[in-house]
Specification:
By secondary structure, the protein is mainly β. The chain has one domain. It contains 3 helices and 10 strands, in the order αβββββαββαβββ. Strands 1-2-3-4-5-6-7-8-9-10 form a 10-stranded antiparallel beta sheet, with helices on both faces. A hairpin with a 4-residue loop joins strand 2 and strand 3. The protein is globular, with a radius of gyration of 19 Å.
Length: 225
């Protein structure tokens, strides 16, 4: 935990040092920022959903490859600028029940014991994003997410997938509300490539196993103009 907070502090120091008079080019803004795609433009990637710009105020998105097993859709809405930050909110729905029941089996691909079955689960995600340009065309984004679930029945607490990436992201399916706070910096390194680094904490409104943290790093490569 100490290492995570140290990484978070170093990230904030790094972004403060980057503050300078510089023109922001807007490249590699990505779905995980407060910026929207232009109207009638679309974008997709390996680790990001398909995004379609509807107007200057809204875009819709969905992880298309996951639709057969995890129906999902969302919308991001722009709210303007204040104090040098651009603000947006994102709102999405997903139904993870089909994929969880598929993973509840023996053999290859069985991450959950076949003794468990999952009722209908509707996961609801609402988030607030604030993005601010930095020097060298970098972009700082701060995000707060609030997730909860509507369940068609009780879920056995023993049916979790106890993997570091999956467990904190599934916690709100079972009980409580998940609050996620994140900060990341992304920047282009050449015309077609960019990098992103960030930290994120997960807080669950329940009595135990209610705090998680992770740091991430990605390299982006633009396949098309």
């Amino acid at each position: 935990m100490k290492r995570t907070f140290l990484a978070f502090a170093l990230l904030l120091i790094f972004t403060a040092l980057l503050q300078a008079q510089s023109q922001f080019t807007g490249r590699f803004m990505g779905y995980n920022t407060a910026y929207l795609l232009p109207e009638k433009k679309w974008e997709s990637g390996i680790r990001q959903p398909l995004r379609v710009g509807l107007s200057q105020k809204a875009e819709i998105y969905s992880t298309v490859l996951a639709l057969p097993l995890t129906p999902n859709a969302g919308i991001k809405i722009a709210w303007g600028e204040l104090g040098g930050f651009r603000f947006a909110t994102a709102h999405s729905l997903s139904v993870p029940s089909p994929v969880l029941n598929m993973l509840s089996r023996n053999g290859i691909g069985g991450f959950i014991s076949p003794e468990f079955t999952f009722p209908f689960i509707l996961s609801i995600n609402n988030s607030v994003l604030a993005s601010r340009p930095l020097c060298y065309s970098a972009l700082l984004t701060i995000k707060a997410e609030f997730l909860f679930a509507l369940r068609g029945g009780e879920i056995d607490p023993q049916s979790t997938i106890d993997l570091p990436i999956m467990y904190p992201r599934m916690a709100h399916y079972y009980k409580g509300t998940s609050v996620r706070l994140a900060a990341n910096v992304r920047a282009p390194i050449c015309h077609k490539a960019g990098v992103e680094g960030g930290v994120e904490v997960f807080m669950i409104t329940r009595s135990g196993n209610n705090f998680f943290a992770e740091n991430t790093g990605y390299v982006y490569w633009k396949m098309c103009n």
